[in-house]
Amino acid sequence: MRALHVSLALALLAGTPPLTAAEVAVRATQISSFGETVLDGTFGQLIFRGGLALVAQDDTFGGLSGLTSTGSNQQVSFVTDRGSFVAGQLAYDESGRLFGLIGVTVEPMQNSQGDPLPRQYAKDAEGIDTIYRNGEPVAVRVVFEHLTRVADFDLIEGVPGGPAREVSIPQWLTDLRTNASLESVCVAPPASPIAGSTLLLTEDHDDGAGHHSGWLLGQADKGPISYQKDPVVYPTACAFLPNGDLLVLERGVSMLSFAMTLRRVAAADVRPGAVMAGELLLAANGSEIDNMEALAVHTAPDGEVRILIGSDNNFNDWQRSLLLEFALPN
Fold this sequence. Notes:
Layout: H1 2-13, E1 22-23, E2 27-31, E3 33-34, E4 37-38, E5 42-43, E6 46-55, E7 64-69, E8 75-80, E9 84-92, E10 98-108, E11 125-133, E12 136-144, E13 149-156, E14 159-167, H2 171-174, E15 182-187, E16 198-206, E17 212-217, E18 223-227, E19 233-240, E20 246-254, E21 257-265, E22 275-276, E23 279-285, E24 292-299, E25 305-311, E26 321-327
């Protein structure tokens, strides 16, 4: 106990929080319409299943810039702009509607030595995906911008943490020291032609041919890959569907409000050397959305595969932390 007290005191004197998970109470308000689309109605090519507006009094909650499913019991984890993991459990009612995010904890990320990330320049986590081994979630892979890098963290009972394990990336990615560098990360599922490979996408780095540059990390499937550029929106997250098709979330500003699109890239088109161009699944702007940056695919309690799209409020009071849920038609 004395050692714990000393550690806490030293952390406070150093101006850094202790690296422990703190419970945070999150209030969720259900969203029952999206524009003029009601629950279970069609929006674009998707079915709107509902959503949440999330609020917490604790100022460590916010900046939710990446999202992944981390367990079979509706466990999820976000990463934040301030270098924290936000873990919790999606709660559904008897009719299959998302109504809350419960058991929420916020835990600062650690560097490879198990110490706090030293400064904001090193904390800007933007994307996260789950690594599976023999069908079980064992770790998460996180991408950072500014101090551009990729790192893995252990998963313990669906909650990420522990010292970072840096993942080797090409030097040209490491050299991108801006907030338009690595934004998206997703690990290809078993059904994908590039199963097990990791897709990295930059938000706004030109590949030399007018497209967003990216990279595939894998054994057999490794090398450059690009994503077609749009004049308004930029890729902010990616997620694979179980069949290997790729979803890409794009975000921008149009007519002084946020805009977003979601596109679907066929599994066969996700390969080294390709320029990916996805089919439009939905497009939205205005008050129904915010700064949409997070994307995940998960299975709801009724067995339906659903798509979660979340917003990053940048820790601003005038922005919102939204979590929208959609499904693909059968």
